[in-house]
């Protein structure tokens, strides 16, 4: 099943998060974004050149917007790893389906459409934010509320990125073009931001391997995720991504000795379940809308 590529993607992103958490002791989020983009651009560029493909695009404006929003989201997300438990950081990144569900519900209300299972959609959205509040309380006690909100903001921006990527896909833009220019934007954004804000920290040999691994895992994860969504069943793929939270929880416990209060664990679980439910209902709403818009046979 092609959707199972998402399992590999979820594992790759979880391990990447763990490596970022480790490297954050020596490098800022801006520097990590720069090196992540550099490695990804080199890997993707080599593959594109070897396969005879091109990175030319007729939609430079859309690519620039998507890449800038995506890089901002990624920078916000990376900045949470140095402070929050690994599983909490990963969970915040997976709030993007809930923001998409909010957009679907708002669009249906604005156009006066009665979406199927709308009540359940609203309930899933409300439950997800209850989950956020549940993990927010311990964060406040540990002076981590600001970082947690930054992570939540990254989830919101990730939802915008998802819609932008879908638009580019519908316009016929190849996946590798989207991924390549995103990596280039990482280099430019991360490089400039690191120079004018935190400055550049000395690159030690012990961190070269982890930084290379971050870029490699990011590229592999993106390719597997793209294949899963492009060739697999969308709903199954979207739900399989939540395995990343389980992977991150185990890795955080084994590697970083992360421990959770019961309210944090319950909040993470509530966010994951709500996200899966919202994804299911949003997909049903999109399918119903497509059916209504399909012309009747002559």
TrEMBL record:
Keywords: Membrane, Transmembrane, Transmembrane helix. The keyword Transmembrane applies. GO terms for cellular component: membrane. Residues 4-136, 149-274 form the EamA domain. It holds the Pfam family EamA. It is found in: Membrane. It is a multi-pass membrane protein. Its main location: membrane. SUPFAM superfamilies: Multidrug resistance efflux transporter EmrE. The chain crosses the membrane at residues 33-55, 94-112, 119-140, 146-165, 177-196, 208-226, 238-256, 262-282. It comes from the Bacteria. This is S-adenosylmethionine uptake transporter. It comes from Quisquiliibacterium transsilvanicum. The lineage of its organism: Bacteria, Pseudomonadati, Pseudomonadota, Betaproteobacteria, Burkholderiales.
